[in-house]
Input
Amino acid sequence: MSPLLPGRSRARALSVEELRERSASLREALDEGGDLLDPTASARAREVSAKVDERTRLVGGRTVVALAGATGSGKSSLFNALVGEEVAQAGMRRPTTSTPTAAVWGEEPVGDLLDWLGVGRRHTVQGRDDLEGLVLLDLPDFDSRESANREEARRVLELVDVFVWVTDPQKYADAVLHDEYVAVLREYGAVTIVVLNQADRLRGDGVARVTADLARLLERDGIPGSKVIATSTRTGEGIDALGERLHVAVAAADASRHRLGLDLADSARRLAPSVGEREVEVDRLGSGELVDALARAAGVPTVVAAVERDYLMQSAARTGWPLTRWVQGLRAAPLKRLRLDRAEAGITDADVRAVLGRSSIPPPTRSARAAVDLAARRLGEHAGQGLPTRWADAVADAAAPYDERLADELDQSVLRTSLRGRDPLWWGLLGALQLLLAAAAVVGLLWLVVIAVAGWLQLPDLPTYDIGPFATPFVLLVGGLIGGLLVAGLGRVMARAGARRRGAAADKRLREAIREVADRVVVEPVRAVLARHRRAREAVARAHAR
Output
């Protein structure tokens, strides 16, 4: 703990560099957390950070000790007793607009420090070299009827290095002292001295009983092990003991760093409930449910079906009966109807957007949009698990529902995705075979026509070659027709299998593109909030470390 508490191991005071580093960590936590942190704790932390920065600039070799107490506790008389002369006005002579009074030991300049403390009344003490470096403040009564006095006492108490709580036998158990001051400052036991003044008013073992009871109340307030100093300005009892305790604080020359370290730790402790203990890992691809819902909203099933139909039409045009292929040209191409039919070479994404704008994929149904919203909400809920309410709400808000921006991103991702593939080799083989069969059928037909015309004109018979029981022209004609039908049937069977493969490949590419949209538009904002939380959490931990 502190040298102010005898009998306890002394905690190491932080160095100026460590104080500044932890103050910077506290500011980082505030900057990262912003309005997602508790406002009261944040305001307190900003005040502490500013205080640490200013106090470390002024730290020098001075130790600032404040005498604080209730009206009638005799702290001004105690102040005068420590100084050795009447500096502070006590009792009825105390001004109604009371302000702090400072007594300064030593020659080291103290003007900037007292200006920062806002103390105008100053007195330089001669003698008592053992207290050199001490700045002793007599504060207004914390229970003064004047609100300005109470606020002034609270303001200065926020800035001093050591508290000396002065009470008396009549008010030592006062609820205001314990509930509004001592209990609130339980974290500052290391820099707190408790004085039971006016001990001469007690008789017999009264001093021992009251100091023991006061120590019990302090332990209840969260300051265990406190040794109460009984003093009397009338008899001089305890004045030297209090002076020795102050000498210990001044000689250590680290009370200010103890106090600042406690301030930082207390501020970080107050901020700790505003951050969680950890963050949920959100993978790059987000939720499978989200990708499925976005694919449905983007019309991927419709596009895949169009890819398969387009493949079947191309296959029929390349491997069908040559004399009837022209019929395929009369049918609208499925991808063209969706404005997804584009050449692959030389076309950039900017060209696609400029020329095509939006596709003609039918807009998503209400149920498809609702599925996206539900998946995004579930992703946000999953990512916000274990986080305080403000952070969990921020994560949920970051998981964007279906809106016009998301719809445009999905549509453009479909437009940018290549939906075609290389023409299969068998298209060329079957197409060439169809041309041969068609040529054979045409030759056979023309041959038969020539024979018929020659017979009608009673011209000499043209030579023919029989293949079994059938004439060669007949075999060419019938063989070409039947072969063409068989090849066309084979082409349809192979086309259906190829269409399924082409559709599966397009579906995979489309889903990958949609995954990137999900990651960029929905998941990345969630990760950004979680990253802010992680940085704030780690900064709070660094500021709180002891």
User: Anything to note?
Assistant: The radius of gyration is 46 Å.
